[in-house]
Each structure stands twice: as C-alpha cells, then as structure tokens.
Backbone:
C-alpha cells in the first residue's frame, strides 16, 4: 500500500527545494561534523526529501551503503535524479512512511534524520520505528532546529511576530518548530542509551557577506514561505508582516547580527544485556 503524503509546512515548491539544497550545502561542514559511517556499514536516511542531506552523507561516507526513504514520490524522484547525476552508486531509494518502515528489525547499522522530527505529530513513535530497524548497538542521529533560539539585532517585535506565524502554523499542522531543545527527552523516551546532544549555534554578522546571505536564503526564506498561509489564517496583518520581514533583513546589514542554534542528537540502540 502506498504511503499517504503528509502536509509540509514549507510547501514543496521549487523555491523550497532550492532553499533546502542551499541550507544543506551551506551548513554541511557545521552540521555533519563528526558524522562518518564505516565502509561496508548499512545506513538508512529517513525523510531524505529532495536529497539535500543525502549527497553530503554520501560524500562523507563513500564506502557505506545507503537506503533513503521519503513519503513523497515527487521528492524521491528529485533526490534520485540528483544523486545519479553526481554519480553516487551506493544508494537505493524507496517510498515509505516513517511510521511503517518496510524493513526487518536490525536491518541497518545506523540511521540518520535531519529536519524531519519537527514536522511529525509523534516524534517519539517515529524514533522508536527508526530504532527498530537499527541493530542493537547501532546509532541514530537526528538534527533539528529551534526557532525559539533565534536572537538578532536590531531587536524587533514585528520580526518576532512573523517568526511566530511559522511556529504557530507548524504547531497547528501537528509539528513543532521548537523541537531542538526537546531532543534529549525524545531520545530518552524512545529508549536510546548513551545519548549525546550537541548544540550547534551559528552566528552571522552583517559585515560578513557569506553569513548574511545564508540568513537570507535559509532562515528568512523559510519564514517568507508561510506568508500566504499566515494571511489566510489571520495570523498577522499585511503591515506587520512587511515590517517584520524588513526587520529580519535589517539584521543581515552592516551593524546587524543574527544567531540561531541547531541541535544534533546521537543515541545508541540498547543491547539486551544493557
């Protein structure tokens, strides 16, 4: 039975696909630091989307064998095309729902998920399902953001309001845009041991063009993506939205600054004797 495609707060437009690819490449060294899988190991990436993170995983662990799954047939097609164009041979793609993964227990040595749990109504159950397809002693790695961690100068009530639109809309869709801070208890509740959670703060100064461009193309673009939905739901009026977006862009100009924290969690599946 084909899995049902779940709503995605950011949409599935080409602009969103480009934002995801920019985000993955721009944050690759930062977020993927320490994530390397041994040659011959079997790794499953759950929620691969358009393959933005997939190509980084493949580059960093060229000897591992990857299986990448996603609920969206459209996203899988884009991921597969991108990976094939880059010439990576050691990866298979399959459409599947995270709550109903079509693999036997212990089929994989490791699992990787990135920016996925924030969109799910039951992240603990999702982690349990991922845990079950990983062998005892294997690892699960999850990377998530936390929009409540955004700090910026100049401070702006309107900028906070437009960020709040995304947080509210995502919550109403069953997700959690503040999930980064919850990774420790989510992994514990899902039964993992030897849990490590690493905060990865990023800082952009308006005087550093590359960092400022990243803020524009990743964070602000993500907020702008819910504009129509925010208006339709009456979350914000037009003037507040325009001032809020303007003030977010102001943080990328000389004299401005922007800080955001990602969280990376790694947990081990318990062996029977542990």
Residues:
């Amino acid at each position: 039975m084909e899995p049902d495609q779940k709503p995605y707060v950011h949409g599935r437009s080409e602009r969103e696909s480009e934002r995801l690819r920019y985000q993955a490449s721009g944050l690759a060294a930062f977020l993927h630091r320490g994530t390397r899988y041994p040659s011959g190991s079997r790794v499953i990436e759950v929620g691969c989307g358009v393959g933005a993170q997939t190509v980084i995983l493949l580059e960093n662990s060229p000897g591992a064998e990857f299986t990448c799954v996603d609920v969206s047939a459209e996203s899988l097609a884009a991921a597969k095309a991108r990976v094939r164009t880059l010439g990576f041979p050691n990866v298979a793609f399959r459409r599947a729902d995270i709550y109903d993964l079509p693999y036997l227990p212990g089929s994989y040595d490791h699992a990787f998920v990135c920016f996925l749990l924030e969109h799910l109504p039951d992240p603990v159950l999702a982690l349990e399902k991922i845990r079950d397809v990983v062998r005892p002693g294997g690892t699960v790695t999850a990377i998530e953001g936390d929009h409540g961690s955004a700090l910026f100068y100049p401070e702006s009530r309107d900028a906070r309001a437009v960020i709040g639109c995304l947080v509210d809309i995502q919550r109403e869709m069953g997700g959690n845009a503040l999930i980064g801070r919850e990774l420790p208890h989510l992994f514990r509740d899902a039964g993992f041991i030897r849990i490590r959670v690493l905060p990865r703060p990023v800082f952009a100064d308006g005087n550093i063009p590359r960092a400022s461009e990243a803020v524009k193309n990743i964070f602000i673009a993500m907020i702008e993506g819910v504009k129509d939905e925010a208006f339709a739901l009456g979350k914000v009026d037009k003037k507040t939205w325009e001032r809020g977006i303007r003030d977010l862009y102001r943080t990328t100009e000389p004299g401005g600054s922007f800080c955001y924290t990602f969280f990376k969690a790694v947990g081990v599946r318990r062996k029977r004797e542990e």
About this structure: DSSP finds ten helices and eight strands in the chain. The CA atoms of residues 159 and 247 lie 6 Å apart.
